[in-house]
Task: inverse folding
């Protein structure tokens, strides 16, 4: 969920993930399989797979489950029928949304997501109606607890890494990169002994909107319902 604050989103998702560990592993397994299908099972030559596996390990996903997901995506095991979906929608009070999913039944997934949207103040729209409001970017987060250098030194290192931009937040630093530079920037930071909280490709709103308390509450209810769906992987907003 890319919304009001990436950091508040992480805190919110952490609480839900602890209660739904098996569902999180199921979603990560799909993401790993898709990455292996697209770029092969060798993480040395497949940075997308390496990034997803790193995320799975940070969630303490069992190694044998990771290995099985890789083999399934690479065609070494039977039963791989997954495909990616991208849905553009309006949420409560005109909030713009992009919903990414991975499913073994596109028609079923689209039907279920459409029902959730309609029930909770949203609506699905034609492709292209929303996506132009967002840019696909690499997004790296560094927690305040992991910042061991002073501000000037950190900023110089981020600039030297080849990042496009960065912002300081109360909880840490958010770094933005071109999609193709995500792994290069992450690797550079790791070589400088800087620990990253996460590194993902995300849809980032070109312009954000302010919302009132009512829209905030409705949007959170919609997020929870969508996030609970097995086929939904990521939700992005222009909030």
Result:
């Amino acid at each position: 969920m890319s919304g009001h604050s990436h950091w508040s989103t992480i805190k919110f998702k952490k609480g839900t993930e602890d209660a739904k560990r098996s569902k999180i592993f199921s979603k990560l397994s799909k993401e790993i399989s898709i990455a292996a299908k697209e770029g092969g099972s060798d993480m040395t030559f497949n940075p997308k797979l390496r990034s997803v596996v790193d995320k799975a390990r940070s969630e303490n996903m069992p190694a044998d489950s990771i290995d099985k997901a890789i083999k399934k995506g690479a065609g070494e095991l039977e039963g791989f029928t997954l495909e990616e979906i991208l849905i553009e929608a309006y949420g409560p009070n005109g909030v713009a949304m992009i919903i990414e999913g991975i499913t073994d039944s596109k028609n079923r997934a689209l039907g279920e997501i459409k029902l959730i949207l309609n029930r909770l103040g949203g609506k699905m729209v034609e492709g292209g109606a929303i996506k132009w409001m967002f840019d696909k970017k690499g997004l790296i987060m560094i927690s305040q607890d992991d910042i061991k250098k002073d501000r000037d030194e950190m900023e110089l290192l981020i600039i030297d890494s080849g990042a496009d931009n960065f912002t300081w937040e109360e909880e840490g630093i958010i770094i933005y990169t071109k999609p193709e530079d995500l792994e290069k920037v992450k690797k550079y930071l790791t070589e400088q002994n800087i620990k990253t909280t996460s590194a993902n490709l995300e849809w980032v709103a070109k312009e954000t909107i302010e919302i009132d308390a009512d829209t905030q509450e409705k949007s959170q209810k919609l997020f929870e319902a969508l996030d609970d769906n097995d086929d939904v992987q990521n939700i992005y907003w222009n909030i």
User: Anything to note?
Assistant: The chain has three domains: 6-73, 83-132+207-237, 135-205.
